[in-house]
Amino acid sequence: MGGSTGEGYLVSRIGKEIELSPVEMASRHSTHVNYNLASGSPDPVTIPVDEIRRSYNTVLEEMGPKALGYPGAGGQAALVKEIERFLPHLGLNKSDGKVVVTSGAQHAIELVSKYLLEGDVVASENPTFVETLSPIKLRSSAVLPVSLDGEGISIEELDTLSKMVKISLVYTIPTCHNPAGVTMCEERRKALVEMAEQRDFYVLEDDPYRPIATNVPPPVKAFDKSGRVIYVSSFSKVLAPGLRVGFVVANEVIAEKLSLLEQNDFSTSTLNQYVLADLLKREVIQDRTERLSSHYRKKMELLVDSLEENSLTDFHSPSCGFFLLLNLHLNSNYVFQRALERGLLFVPAKPFFLRGGETFARLSIAAANEKDIVQGVSTLKRLLADP
Amino acid sequence: MGGSTGEGYLVSRIGKEIELSPVEMASRHSTHVNYNLASGSPDPVTIPVDEIRRSYNTVLEEMGPKALGYPGAGGQAALVKEIERFLPHLGLNKSDGKVVVTSGAQHAIELVSKYLLEGDVVASENPTFVETLSPIKLRSSAVLPVSLDGEGISIEELDTLSKMVKISLVYTIPTCHNPAGVTMCEERRKALVEMAEQRDFYVLEDDPYRPIATNVPPPVKAFDKSGRVIYVSSFSKVLAPGLRVGFVVANEVIAEKLSLLEQNDFSTSTLNQYVLADLLKREVIQDRTERLSSHYRKKMELLVDSLEENSLTDFHSPSCGFFLLLNLHLNSNYVFQRALERGLLFVPAKPFFLRGGETFARLSIAAANEKDIVQGVSTLKRLLADP
Fold first, then answer.
1. CB within 8 Å: B240 and A68
2. For testing the chain B interface, which of A29, A230, A256, A266 should be mutated: the one with the most B CBs within 10 Å?
3. Measured at the alpha carbon of residue A250, what is the angle toward residues A248 and A253, in degrees to the nearest 5?
4. Higher pLDDT, B266 or B133
5. What is the mean pLDDT of chain A?
6. Strand B152-153 to strand B140-149: parallel, antiparallel, or no bridges (unpaired)?
7. Is A334 helix (H, G, I), strand (E, B) or coil?
8. Taking CB atoms and an 8 Å limit, are A253 and B6 in contact across chains?
9. Which of chain A's residues have a Cβ under 8 Å away from the Cβ of B115?
């Protein structure tokens, strides 16, 4: 029993196991670099500051103190209504489930984990996004890695696994995967929902990049007839992360329970919810998908071309989103340190893997401009040629 | 194993035990009543909408997209600095601990519970605030009730209890208690810290009303020399609840761990943090304490006088804050239903009690105007005279 510093004192399993995220770690370096290929934040040039400001003024002017009270559990009715109206834009319908507003997708996943998991066995793509996996991992007994290829999660492997072990939840980022950039094909989406039925597990579909993607298959949730898919999305990529508003679409029982759990943190700003409702009402967000999809696609094409020109070819070509997962064929932590010295920042991807991954790097085009991408890649190439 | 609705499906203990808060339940009636003596939200007339709006405009104008990125774990540096500067206003100093920004006090308590508790034994005032207790309760094996009188928690009872049982944490609302309205005297604050040392437990000090109170003793945290007190506060009462920004002051180890845990929800709006930093920098918040303290004190005096005029005298006179706990000497759920029919809303206080409390009502002067208070009390009196 410690005391003065708290060290050695009895803390929870979560308290003991929580670790600094590699993304957070990388971001601590971000002010000192020339080429930032690490950021998961949307490109600052895409953030509609004036529209957002206009909505703050409108909401505060029209609603006054009413916009500044405590948030109701589950979300302000005005925003829930606007999100319901927005669902078809995501390939979903109001009849697919009940909307629960959260403080971003990360908070949604934390709530779902808290509701569902207590020492359960979970399966997830390998690799997967380490930050969203963290709350899931901290409340489960094991997270089983399932291989990922250019068409998404391996249904065959998941089938074998789920025959051997009772899985409670499959966590997936089917569209514009983080960190792998790939998108699950429609056939696998259908197969995943069928398997969830047969083997009695839930699917947690994390879908934050859809609002900035075009030509992607419908959500897994769209094929779900029995409420087994819990759909999570966010306005962080299509609008701005700083408002911290996301949402869940889930069956009624789960939606009601997640709302109750929100009483325990009451974390979603009331004002920001009304601002988002105003932006959705004015169709500001809906209008952005096409433009942002093309903005990021161009940058991703440039990254892919630059890599190929430099004979760095061991990756799946990303279909959308911010990320590309490159096999460096060298320990990525070592390369990371060397890259930092030359002003290049990426995220060493080992922590995204449940198994393997030592030589992988997550490269991001999110906040990088054309120069960063081209010069970042050639810096990386020089490093790898002379490690 | 259920399926289609999720009912009967395996969920976590937290998923099973979470319940609708009585405050949330009461608030669902709030649009249909004449006299709202239930609200815990600050008086809408006190919310400085124009100052808040001014800060949103300033921050968005000066910072642009930088104000709208992902929040860093632990809080934006600019806000942490301003809160450190604000601490003396709360009777604390920068040297008392490290500041961690949270999405309000409720979120802070959720984080502290997650970090510290896993089937531990906790002690708390009886009654206590049911919503903040909820995350604590859901992660502990037992919450032991300790009596409360006009001078705060019974140190004698806590002493006896903590000799018999290994207590890990004492949760307390020492200043302007919710729901009892009382304030712990300085002597007991010192005794509590001493006991924490001797018996090796932490104290979680929940102090959201201090910024609207004058003439109250220093925080328990101010007497803490060894980092055993985790101090939680909020800007919800002194400014507005809708921004969802609060903070923790804790020893370095705990502060660092709470920051890491924030990676699992990333829920505190970046923009709102900068807005709050701007409001603190402009001394808007500091300037309000005296005025708000007097505003609420007058309303509380009116409530006390009205009750006494109606011979309703079974309560401790609140020293500050929003709440008064009245013994109705009748089942308060029954009276609640009857009161609703007559347009009066209060919170039946049984759920605030770990033991007893069936006949208590929590009366609030927060959002009520003078008429509501006077007529609400006379409605209550008529009801009790003819139940």
1. yes
2. A266
3. 125
4. B133
5. 94
6. antiparallel
7. helix
8. yes
9. 11-12, 14-15, 18
Q: Please give the full DSSP string across B118-153, using - where no structure is assigned.
A: SSEEEEEEES--HHHHHHHHHTEEEEEEEEEETTEE
Pairing of strands A169-172, A152-153: unpaired
Query: Residue A60: its chain B contacts at CB < 8 A?
Result: 49, 52-53, 56
Name residue, tokens 């600095």.
B81
- Show the DSSP H helices in chain B as ranges: 13-17, 22-27, 49-63, 77-86, 104-116, 130-138, 155-164, 186-199, 252-262, 270-281, 289-309, 332-341, 370-385
**Residue at A22: amino acid letter:** P
User: Length of chain A in residues, anyone?
Assistant: 387
A383: left (phi over 0), alpha (psi -120 to 50) or beta: alpha
Q: How far apart are CA A275 and CA A58, in angstroms?
A: 8
DSSP string, B302-371: HHHHHHHHTT---SPPP-SSSEEEEE-SS-HHHHHHHHHHTTEE-EE-GGG-SS--TTEEEEE-SS--HH
Nearest Cβ partner for A269 among B3, B228, B242: B242
**pLDDT tens digits for range A169-221:** 999 999 999 999 999 999 999 999 999 999 999 999 999 999 999 999 999 99
Contact yes or no for A219/A231 (Cβ under 8 A): yes
Extract the tokens encoding A53. Answer: 């400001």
The set of residues, in sequence order, having a beta carbon less than 8 Å from that of B160 and lying 6+ positions away, is none
Kindly give, in sequence order, each residue whose CB lies less than 8 Å from that of residue A9, ignoring residues fewer than 6 positions away.
A1, A2, A3, B202
d(CA A352, CA B147): 49
Closest CA to B207 of B256, B284, B152, B144: B152
Residue A100: closest CA among A114, A111, A115: A111
DSSP classification of residue B156: H
Say which residue the tokens 């500044």 belong to.
A68
pLDDT of the residue at A9: 55
Taking the mean position of all CA atoms in its chain, how far away is CA A85? 22
pLDDT digits (tens, 9 = 90+) for A270-318: 999 999 999 999 999 999 999 999 999 999 999 999 999 999 999 999 9
**CA gap B304, B98 in Å, rounded:** 39
Hey, what are A333's tokens?
């932590």
Q: Report pLDDT digits (tens) over B321-349.
A: 999 999 999 999 999 999 999 999 999 99
Residues of chain B with Cβ-Cβ distance to A117 below 8 Å are 12
Angle formed at CA A31 by CA A30 and CA A32, multiple of 5 degrees:
90
C-alpha torsion sign, points A311, A315, A318, A321: negative
Rounded Cα–Cα distance for residues A235 and A204 (Å): 18
Biggest alpha carbon distance in chain B? 62
How far is the CA of A372 from the CAs of A378, B8, B343, in angstroms?
10, 53, 64
Contact between B103 and A103 using a beta-carbon 8 Å cutoff: yes
Take residue B46 and report the two structure tokens written for it: 């006190």
CA neighbor of B139 nearest in space, from B166, B158, B121: B121
The answer to whether the Cβ–Cβ distance between B116 and A11 falls below 8 Å is yes
Q: Do B49 and A41 touch (CB under 8 A)?
A: no
Give the containing element (helix H, strand E) for A77.
helix A77-86
Residue B102 main-chain phi, psi, to 5 deg: -130, 175
pTM, full prediction: 0.94
pLDDT in tens, B25-50: 777 787 778 999 999 999 999 999 99
Calculate mean pLDDT across residues B70-95: 95
Percent of chain B whose pLDDT exceeds 90 = 88
Q: Which of A27, A40, A2, A148 is nearest to A368 (CA)?
A: A40
* Residues A242-263: tens digit of each pLDDT: 999 999 999 999 999 999 999 8
